[in-house]
Predict the structure.
Amino acid sequence: MVAEYLGVPRGTVGWWRYEDRRHRGETYTQLTDCPICTGRAFDQQAYSYLLGLYLGDGHIISKYKQHHLSVFCDATWPGLIDGAELAMHLVMPAPATGRRHRRGCVEVKSYSQHWPCMFPQHGPGNKHERRITLEGWQQDIVEAYPWEFLRGLIHSDGCRIINWTVRNGKRYEYPRYFFTNKSDDIRKLCTDTLTKVGVQWTVLARGSDPFNVSIARKASVALMDAHIGPKY
């Protein structure tokens, strides 16, 4: 409002404030609503979903005095894009969010120095090239909200397809879920959680790479449909 009243850029007002604090010898500490640093309660159900998205198609980019959480979503699924941004808001409402449209996808971003606090799995390099384990508090959330975690994983690196086969000269179609990820650790987090909620799964290898978790049994697909369903 000050910038608009004076007719100057917001960055100019920010510089004035910075110079004023510097001359007075004050150290500026940016306010945060980070649950880890403040101890405040947060929406754990939304976090379980966001954790699944992060482990699948998310990452944190670190810059000077800033980190931003990015989740890449297929542009054909507007519900997924909205859901990713909403989950970020529910976990940490204060940070600004934005969307960057790229070819075939939308990058949903949230800017805060504290996203690494919420996702301690953040580190240099690709996730499948380093060890991925959950902290105790993260595991507790996944156990409390396993379907939200699985939904995040499927919405990021999974899909629901209609498969088909031929038996006795007739074509049969049936739904099937896949989760595909190069990280052995992330796939194990997925399969461990599937087992806990009663979903039967198998590993479908392409060549020699066991990157695909398959869910094809009728009862298990029905469970997945009831709690997850196709992307939208």
About this structure: The mean pLDDT is 88. Strands lie at 58-63, 66-74, 97-102, 105-111, 158-167, 170-180, 202-206, 209-215.
